Amino acid sequence: MPTLAPPPAAFAARMSRISVSATAAVVMEAERLRAAGRDLVDFGAGEPDFPTPAHIKRAAQQALDENFTRYTAAGGIAPLKDAIRQAHDRDFASGYAREEVLVTCGGKHALFNTISALVEHGDEVILPAPYWVSFHDQITYAGGIPVVVATDEAAGFTLTIDAITSRLTPRTRIILLNSPANPSGAVFSPELFRAVLEICRERGIWLLSDECYSKFVYSGQPYSAATDAAKLPGAKERLIVAGSFSKTYAMTGWRLGYALAPAVVIKQMLKLQSHSTSNATSFVQKAGIAALTGPQEPVREMLAEYSRRRELIVTGLRGIPGITCNEPAGAFYAYPNITGAMAKKGIATPLDFAGRLLQEAGVVTVPGEAFGTGAHIRFSYAASQDAIREGLKRLAAFCA
Questions:
Q1: Of 197, 181, 189, nearest to 160 (Cα)?
Q2: Tens of pLDDT along the chain (400 residues)?
Q3: For the whole model, what pTM was predicted?
Q4: What angle do CA 70, 74, 77 make, to 5 degrees?
Q5: Structural class in CATH, domain 13-51+297-399
Q6: According to CATH, where is 3.40.640.10 located in the chain?
Q7: CA 186, CA 177: separation in Å to the nearest integer?
Q8: Please, what is the Cα angle at 169 between 163 and 172, to 5 degrees?
């Protein structure tokens, strides 16, 4: 009997629609250079350099000691769901019920579940730029079409309701807002959110609000779209909130997040999660309860330190000829415009600029192409003040 030839190597078409996360690629290249002995100043990863607060680590250790290491319900344990909804109600008067909460393996997982559950092939998702790298690829992976909407750089990368409404079509499925925003640090106004909620309610589309940085706002009070959705009849039924423990509690590696949404949406997201990751790590869920119900002073301390670092890095960037920089209103990223610096160096793109800055000066950044813009690079100032000073010194020398 003849031997059949093996089929040609091929991958699912959806894999061609995505690429490795740009921030992950930067981290991998930085690790390669460190392994080769290079001295680097790292502004690449959006990861707090603070240790996870002690009471959270103790809760995880206690859970381990008590052998809380088996499977849990795929959507999370009830005490954590209650802690999430009660903390959110305490902070934002949102009034979610337990069946409207899904515990996920990080905020990115909550976003992926949401987009996978709601977006069909050909559906459009309104996406303000600059945008976080994974938004675009998650949409295209699901078969959706990102409809990129420009923000106003001169006004701190803010967004107007007219910019959104001008891009709405009968195929619009989701309006995706991230505030405070990665990479720009922009904070969108409650008035904008209220207007978007009105549109979503009237048109039967969804607002997906990524609020992973909601506690890191430098002036005014933290805000959630759920606050106004709870007051506007019919609006809460069109809102999904994605949240994370990673940034707020310096728990990036713990991989714990959540989604708040109507129960019918949570059921669909849970269906997907039950066939992929199943539950978030059992003892990490116990740590999450401690994070939400324990002292919140570490969060305030981190914000205060980020504020000092923000002043340091923005002042330093503005002092380098060829670079302009908005002051971020939230999160912990500076997103300077490097048009002048690129022209001086004869460099055509932020990608090339960031690559040469890494190779020649040992400074790790993420180029603006990853975020949908062509004149910027991102600096994460989740780094020590000494590191920020050294990085600015190297950048100034490189630009000169």
A1: 189
A2: 566 666 666 889 889 888 877 777 777 888 898 899 999 999 998 899 999 999 999 999 999 999 999 999 999 999 999 999 999 999 999 999 999 999 999 999 999 999 999 999 999 999 999 999 999 999 999 999 999 999 999 999 999 999 999 999 999 999 999 999 999 999 999 999 999 999 999 999 999 999 999 999 999 999 999 999 999 999 999 999 999 999 999 999 999 999 999 999 999 999 999 999 999 999 999 999 999 999 999 999 999 999 999 999 999 999 999 999 999 999 999 999 999 999 999 999 999 999 999 999 999 999 999 999 999 999 999 999 999 999 999 999 999 9
A3: 0.94
A4: 70
A5: alpha beta
A6: 54-293
A7: 11
A8: 90
Residue count of the chain, please give it: 400
Matching CATH number, 54-293, of 3.90.1170.20, 3.40.50.720, 3.20.20.150, 3.40.640.10:
3.40.640.10
The secondary structure of 205-241, three-state, reads CEEEEECCCCCCECCCCCCCHHHHHCCCCCCHHHEEE
